[in-house]
Fold this protein.
Amino acid sequence: MNLTKYAPNLSIIENIQKGLEIGNRMANVIIKKRPFAVNYDITWQCNLRCNHCYFYSSAAELELGEINTRKELSDEQWINVFRYHRSLGVYSASITGGEPTLRMYLLHEAVNIFPSVQIATNGTIKIPYFKAKKQPILWVSLDGPKDLHNKIRGASIFDKVIKNIQDDKRVFISCTVSSQNYKEIEKVVEIAYDADVSGIFFLWYTGYDNDPLLLKGEKSKIAVGKILNVMKEYEDFIIFSKKMLELYISKEFVPHCFFRKKNRIHSYYPNGQQKFCVMGNSPKLCKNCGCIVPVAVYALRKFDRETINKLRRFPF
Ligand code: SF4
Ligand code: SF4
């Protein structure tokens, strides 16, 4: 297997430039007390109803009524929010939902306003190449081989998703590991590799204590073993480090999570209401959090060499 096409190729100068850029952004956050990044759930709508969806479970807690009756910001209002945050110096925006591609016009606008945009999508709607200085990064969900993915997502979408992502280097596969798919990790990686996308990373399923999808005990150990195996076999295609894996289990990162600290990362519901964090609206989720963002940030803060190397190809 030739993995050199995925090897990091940033030069020393590029690394220094990147370090200075992150330093400037951190100074903006700490001295001027401005957000480091923003996350927008731009729509309540989704064309799927996955059985593990944290968005709908957290949105249900808001008691805003049926999805179809809920208000969301208009295009103009969202664009004003984007521009306001950019004027504060925010560099990076992640766009989530619901399914953000249902508001494609806003994706186009966000890409033109922010220097760095990440879009989390279920992959059922092809995202075009935008007329912009920089293309967004696409985080596309894949939970298992065809039958399992379709079962988890509640619809026969697998073939369409693979067709939409094939050979698209903007794509990183996001695999949420839970009690329903932990045995299939190798298969998911193989499918992602064959689709010739840029890489794959893992999230640990997040939920409240009694949630049957949480990975516990022996299942968790098996998942860890499988991820270590694919990290060896697929090397730089796996955008994930041993330290990040260790943190998913220990939860050592939780008290230091950026979302828990004011003015670090702002997260918004489709109606413009600020959320507790990207995962939902309750600190009770922290105990079982498997979000990659605070894990990656904590590992970077510890100067973990493998994490630094892995994340060089993964722009926030
Ligand atoms: S595609 Fe995403 S937002 Fe839509 S139901 Fe599934 S997990 Fe939720
Ligand atoms: S649930 Fe996770 S991402 Fe959200 S505040 Fe808690 S630790 Fe941070």
In short: Residues 4-311 form a domain with the TIM Barrel fold (CATH 3.20.20.70).
